[in-house]
């Protein structure tokens, strides 16, 4: 089938008729092979260049040049209006092909999601799971996008001092995976030149050093502080924390908080939040007085069982439309009751959706 474009010979190029046939016009005595070069085609159109680009051809060439320059010189190379993706695992009469993890990583706008504190932990955990097992399944473009978003995550932690421990664990897992792939497994499993991956390893090391040297400045506040709150309110805040390390770190702030953080009831509720009763029976930890040491029991159970994950906001999957999306952005659902079809997706479930 012939190509029906604005210029059937080659869209975006300018041609002239000679005795030997049609010949393409060349700029400055050589062909335009470098799309990254900054050439203002509007000036070429308006100047005394014998109308090298005229009419629609000029507009098409300008659009193509801007697209090539944007894709090659910017880090945010994936821009989509829709913030959702159709998860397809096989070909049908209506749709052909399938959706990959890399495509979902490019389409779901994680760059904007990390700016939302409700979604930051979710994206960081997802990137940690990808670093552990799914890095080699990403395409070259998806890997590039992965490291671009990761750079923004590190920059946000350095600027806002938000949850550096989680990002340190992410970088540690990513560094271990890349060391194993580049040194032990070999370069055959990696997309791209091995030197690029070695440069990425150096960049990860630099990020780790920056996070290790991170100093959170002391907040100078003349108003009410956390220590000024009544004890029952401080204790209530501790009960809202679901991470044991947050409770331990908070308990190191003052002697009063240390006493509150060692409360048996606090650790008992934390155990019941993350683990089931059957898991308690298999790993019961008792003190000398035959009482349950709930703090020690928590860390014992943590070694054997996964903990319950809790996030401010997650991706959602519509079982009616098979669409994955951020709930605030919405999606074109055709169900009578869209809310009844929604299912929150954990980071691990996100990975499992794209395993074929």
From TrEMBL:
This is F-box only protein 25. It comes from Seriola lalandi dorsalis. Pathway: Protein modification; protein ubiquitination. It comes from the Eukaryota. It is found in: Nucleus. Substrate-recognition component of the SCF (SKP1-CUL1-F-box protein)-type E3 ubiquitin ligase complex. May play a role in accumulation of expanded polyglutamine (polyQ) protein huntingtin (HTT). Keywords: Nucleus, Ubl conjugation pathway. Its main location: nucleus. The keyword Protease does not apply. GO terms for biological process: protein ubiquitination. One of its GO terms (cellular component) is cytoplasm.
